[in-house]
């Protein structure tokens, strides 16, 4: 019996995760990547329990997380250095920050071991519901299933004429910085001052991860080149951290992607192409790779049409809730009324202490693939 064939547009984290998981389930997998080489852009990857379970399931956790330090506390700190909230982590609800390049390299090698074919400099420009794709160079291919894992600006999604892409007026710098002996161990922090935030977290024994978020209109904060003095004016107590920033990456705008359905015929959208969101909850990649593994499991158990329905029924509510709460978190950070900034720490502290809100914020982190068997 011939293997089922899938074509995946995009060799990012979600595309590689799905490619590995399907090849491990005896699918014929072809990935087309538009870049000239396989590489991951970015610094650190917030990895919660859901993402860690995915990496373990497909056999890349040990390789991707070498020398990674697990975090016990994630603290939110206001401009007076007061603690607004502290999230605790355990062996059952783990959290760490893995360098993105290490996860990407481990996934590429997992794909190679599983027999996935990856072609670079091959941009997918369109797909149709019958299972055909066309590349920028004019070549066309047909498969049993087409996956658009080609990011927030997805050509696959645009060719299907579905979904809404919304630009958000917030952005961020991201970097890995060298660790020094004085750095805290096991503790990640997010510092708030007006409409700027700085997050700092242990990553490996060599690096810490730092992100600096602000409003796109805040030209001092989000203008190139990186303006250390602007950030020092808001966070003078973080001078030691800011002085260690050398190379950093700027995303001047974030995006939300909203779709009524992630699928159309034999084409499905995955990752940021399906549910792009601000990184306020650190779950953009986590939801994406969790969704990839859920899809692979459903395709193992069911025919393609049924599998796509089951996958969306299971996974989309989690992605939708994560988008909603990311938006709420972002609004508290960047859209709070200026005249009420003085009471923001107390309101956030009370809200974050609510068990119901904690459950909503951790919806994605608690998701476990393949357990909702009743849907089959």
TrEMBL record:
> Which parts pass through the membrane?
none
The family database entries (Gene3D superfamilies) matched by this protein are listed as:
D-Amino Acid Oxidase, subunit A, domain 2 (3.30.9.10), FAD/NAD(P)-binding domain (3.50.50.60)
Which residues constitute the signal peptide according to the record?
1-23
Q: Which SUPFAM superfamilies match?
A: FAD/NAD(P)-binding domain (SSF51905)
What UniProt keywords are attached to this protein's entry? Monooxygenase, Oxidoreductase, Signal
* Superkingdom field: Bacteria
UniProt entry tagged with the keyword tRNA processing: no
Q: Which Pfam families match?
A: FAD_binding_3
Under PANTHER family, the record lists:
MONOOXYGENASE, PUTATIVE (AFU_ORTHOLOGUE AFUA_6G14510)-RELATED
Q: What is this protein called?
A: FAD-dependent oxidoreductase
Provenance organism: Bacillus salipaludis
Task: Output the lineage of the source organism.
Answer: Bacteria, Bacillati, Bacillota, Bacilli, Bacillales
